What we know:
Layout: H1 8-22, E1 28-30, E2 35-37, H2 40-53, E3 56-71, E4 77-91, E5 94-109, H3 114-130, E6 156-158, E7 164-167, H4 173-178, H5 187-207, H6 211-219, H7 226-230, H8 235-245
Antiparallel strand pairs: 1-2, 3-4, 4-5, 6-7
Helix pairs in contact: 1-2, 5-6
Amino acid sequence: MSEQHSNVYSAIAAVMGELSQIGVGKTQKNEQQRYMFRGIDAMYNALSPLMSKHRLLALPRVVSKDTVERQTKKGSTLFFTFVRVEYDFVCADQPDSKHTVTVEGEGMDSGDKSTNKAMSAAYKYAVMQTFCIPVEGQSIDSEQETFSDVVPEGEAVYTASGTYMGKSTGKARQGALRGHAGITVPDLVKEDAYCHGYASSIRASISSEAWGDVKQLYQGIEPDKLDNVWALFTDAEKKQIEGALE
C-alpha cells in the first residue's frame, strides 16, 4: 500500500528509514576472486518497492558526457566514458516538491557498454548517498584517495579528440580521469595523472566485475610505471587484480 507525503524530504526520509532496517547487503559472490559484493541490481531490488510505496520518483538527466579512446600495447581499443547526471527526486503527490542530486560516473569497456557502466555507477552512488545506505568495508570511491599534485591554475584540459573541457579545478583529479588526454601540465604531474588514471579505470572495472578489462588495462600500463600504479591499490584490490591476471 502506498503512502502519501507532503514533500520530497518526507518521502526521502521514509525510504531512508526503511532501508536502515533492511539494508543492502553484499549478497552476491564472485566465484573467481572469492569475495562478496553488492551490485546495481541489489540497489534496484531494494529501492524499487520502497520508492513505489512512498511515491518517490528519481528522474535522471545527463548534463554532460565525454568519451575518449585509449590504445592498449596490443593495439586494441578501450572506450572510457565520463558522465555527469542530475537526478530529480520528486514527490509524486506534490510534483513541485523536488530535490536535485548531481553525481558523476565513469565506465570503461572494450565494446559498446562504457556509457551503461558510467550511468550505473552514477545511479549507484546517487542513491547510496541520498539514502545513506551503509557500505561495508572501504569503498573504491573512498575519500582516503587524495591527490597532492596541483594542476597550474588556468591550464586547460583537453580530451583525446581535442575537445576543450574547461579550466583546471586546481587538483590533478581531472587529469586522473582523462589519462593520456593531452593534459597541459609539467611532466611530473603528467606522470602522476597517468598512474592515477589507470588506477581509477582499473577500479571501475573491478567494481563492474569486468575482469577481462582489468587484465587488458593492467597489461597496457607502461613497464616503467607499473610499480607506481601498483602502489596505488589496496591489498584487497591487488588480490583481485592478481586473480584477473591468472
